[in-house]
Structures are given as C-alpha cells and as structure tokens.
Write a structure and sequence with these properties.
single chain; 2 domains; globular; mainly alpha
Amino acid sequence: MPQNREFFDCVNSFERLEKSSKVIEKCERAIEMEADLINEAIVHSLLMSTYAKQGNFEEAREQLLLAREELGKVLGLEGENLRRFTVNEDSQEQYFHILDEKVDPRRKPSENSILTQIMLCPVYPRGFREDLTDTEKRDASLNWWADFPGHILYLLLGDLWAAYNEGYSIKCLKILKEHEQRERPEESPPSFTEIVSGYKLGLLLKARDVASAIREFKEVTSALSYPEFHNLPDNERMLDEYFISEAKKELTSAEQSRSKTGLLGLFRKSST
C-alpha cells in the first residue's frame, strides 16, 4: 500500500483549505510521483473539488473522469469496457461488490469508502429531458453536482484522516456538520449528511471527551422528534434510521462510561 509524502501533502493542503493554486500544485505533484492507482483516484477527486469551487466545472468533470479511469484500471478493465465504466455511472453499480476483492486488504476501510463515493458522483444527472442538446446536458450536469465535492468530500476526508490524525478528522466532520445545519430550513429534520457526520463525530470524541460525544449522539437521535422525518421516502428514512439506531447504542454506552467514571471519582474521594 504505497503512500508517499506528496500524497499526504496534497490531502493536507486540501483539508487545511489552502489557496486553490496551492492545492492544485501539490496534487499535481502527487500525481507525478504517485505509482498507486488508488491514491491517484483520491488525488483526482480532490482536484475535482478544488476546480469545482473555482467554478471551473469543465476541468472538475475531467478530474472526475480521470478518478474513475484509475478505479477502472484497479478493477482490471481495459479498452471499451474501461471507457464505458469511466463515463457511464449506471454501469458502475455492478462493480461495487468486487471493490473489496481488488483493493489491497491492508488499506483502511475509510479509503475504500472514498473510492465508492467517486463512482457515485454523477457525470450526468439521471432523468434528463430527451430534447436537451449534449451541451445543455453537460452544462446542467456540471451545475447539478458542483456542490457535491465541497460538502460530501469533507465527510470522506473525515473518514480518511480518522486512520492517521483524529484531530484533522474531527475538524473535517465539524465543518460539514455546521454547514448542513446552516443550510437546513427551520422545522426540517437533519439531513442524512448531518446525521452521519454527527454520528462519526461522536465516535471520534467518545474516547477523548465523553460529554461532547454524548451531545453529538443526542443531536443525531433528536432527528426522530421532527414530524417531517416520518414523511421522508422509505429508502431515505431507513438509511437515516440505521445511523440513528447506532447512535442510540453509542449514547447508552457513553452515558454508562461517564456514570462509571463519576462513581469511581466519588469512591476515590471517600477513601482518602
């Protein structure tokens, strides 16, 4: 699982919100030095995000295609099969189940999740009207997914950094969660992204700040108190409910841990 300094310089530059020119420079250097296809896919996804934030959607889409091309090579695709995989998001679902077989087992699961999300980011949104020209489809698609990398990639980076530096991971997840909260209309339930980022924050904080972890888990479970939550489509609600259920388990565990710590402190005081 080769990972060079240039790769981490690129990821670090993106996470620290350095100037776009710096991020691009470091990521391009990482691609020049990188021999690992998976790392290259991740770097291309960060470049996709950076160009999208600049408003350069044409280059951003090109970086997405390059990221997918690297994934296709990881899956062993060649020629026409590789080309179809790269440009057609509908053909990619069949490859999800073999990612684990193709990806080096020494890699962290969080890195594998980034690769999956690269495949999910659409080149063109589904449901286009047939009367649109290719140019109109292209322009609409670029605007349609333009905000994807600026938001979701913070969740992916949070996963990535959890394996190397929890402080960076917590920062990424907080940025994402706070953004989702600001964008949420009043009286609306938390988004799936807010629920997942809050849950993951709680997991990271549990060992270092149990009170903060409890607060995060309580915020996640509070989604059930919003009447509109129960009106969500079944597939969305079921996914939300899974993470809410997990947050409930972690909340119980965290509260028990805090209770034991408090009792231990009282015992120590009484014995002195």
